[in-house]
Amino acid sequence: MQIKIHNLAITALAVTTLMSCSGKQQGQAPSASYKTLKIETQDITVNSKYSATIRGCQDVQIVPQVSGTIHQILVTEGQKVKAGQTLFVIDQVPYRAALNTAEAALEAAKAGEATAALNYEAKKKLRAENVISDFDLQTSYNSLLTAKAQVSQANAQVVNARNNLSYTTVSSPSDGVVGELPYKKGALVGPSIQTPLTTVSDIDQMHVYFSMTEGQLLAMVRESGNLDKAIAEMPEVQLQLVDGSMYEIPGKVESASAVIDRTTGSIQLRAAFANPGHVLHSGSSGSVIIPTHLKNQIVIPIKATVQLQDRFRVWDVDKDGIAHGILVTLRPERIGDKVIVSDGLKVGQQIVAEGAGMVREGQDVLRKDLKK
């Protein structure tokens, strides 16, 4: 019985000894080795990318002004044309016939006017001799006026018929490049067609349209003072093409729409790009890249952050090497594998630089400085 009591005492002593040794670590996470980073500021340039559509400086839809079948197509898709160059010829036969009819009607009206004039002159002599009454003279004069009006009407019909005939020759209104040709020879076309005969695009200079959020635009305006000044102060922009390549010639933002799209909360801007080699085509898409120069910014690795809904947490390491979680706000831009902290950190603080997702509050961090 004494032996059992002695063994129990030894066991209790061992438990007590273990508890006393582990009491130092109660409530504290185990230590681990993490790289750390001392917070500093730097000047950086970040690029903001916006989806864009590319249009010719001038895209003119070609729609016929008269109806008829296409008699000739004198251009091909992608062909360069000059202002006034003939693109299409619509069947002219009915319009030539209409012009001939109008001209004949004009000649008849002129003959009628001449006859009425002779009759009026004869009536005036008869009235002077009191052979006819004033009524007969006035009637003769009215007939002359009617004949003159018929001549004017016939002349207008000739002009209209001549214009219609000229409209059968469809010419380019400007220099440019011919777009798609959806109609073939013999197709019936007219002013009411839904699809134009083609589009002539001036692509020596291209307009690139992109949208910016209302908040982004407001920040620009506040910094510059007004919208016109903000647009003028914007740096040159780059254009990324659909294949990921960069267009070699930079562009300049020229204007911004005065109306904000209520459905998207965005405003449309237009940038101009020179296109001497005609690499850019109207209707293409791409991305406008706008550089923004920022001064005295805090830049940290993305691995130093842990996302918590719309906020991010980093681990501040105090002078004793203990990690404490703090919430920070990040700018939306990314610089490779780094992010920009807009709020929550101060110069001189030490943070865990990698493996932030493994750190726990109060953990003893064995620091290894990480150079930027």
List keywords for this structure.
disordered N terminus; 372 residues; four-stranded antiparallel beta sheet; twelve-stranded antiparallel beta sheet; alpha+beta; 19 strands
Report on the structure:
This protein is an alpha+beta fold. It has helices spanning 2-22, 93-128, 134-167, 214-224, 227-233; strands at residues 32-38, 41-62, 68-73, 80-81, 86-90, 169-171, 176-178, 188-189, 198-213, 238-241, 252-256, 266-274, 285-301, 306-308, 311-317, 323-335, 338-343, 350-352, 365-369. The strands form 3 sheets. Strands 2, 4, 7, 9, 10, 11, 12, 13, 14, 15, 16 and 17 form a 12-stranded antiparallel β-sheet that branches. Strands 6-5-3-8 form a 4-stranded antiparallel β-sheet. It has a 3-stranded mixed β-sheet with strand order 18-1-19, with no helix packed on it. Helix 2 (93-128) runs antiparallel to helix 3 (134-167) and helix 4 (214-224) crosses helix 5 (227-233). It is elongated. It starts with a helix and ends with a strand. The model is unreliable at 1-27 (pLDDT under 50).
What are the SSEs and their pairings?
Layout: H1 2-22, E1 32-38, E2 41-62, E3 68-73, E4 80-81, E5 86-90, H2 93-128, H3 134-167, E6 169-171, E7 176-178, E8 188-189, E9 198-213, H4 214-224, H5 227-233, E10 238-241, E11 252-256, E12 266-274, E13 285-301, E14 306-308, E15 311-317, E16 323-335, E17 338-343, E18 350-352, E19 365-369
Parallel strand pairs: 1-19
Antiparallel strand pairs: 1-18, 2-9, 2-13, 3-5, 3-8, 4-7, 5-6, 7-9, 9-12, 10-13, 11-12, 13-17, 14-15, 15-16, 16-17
Short account of what is shown:
The chain has 372 residues and is an alpha+beta fold.
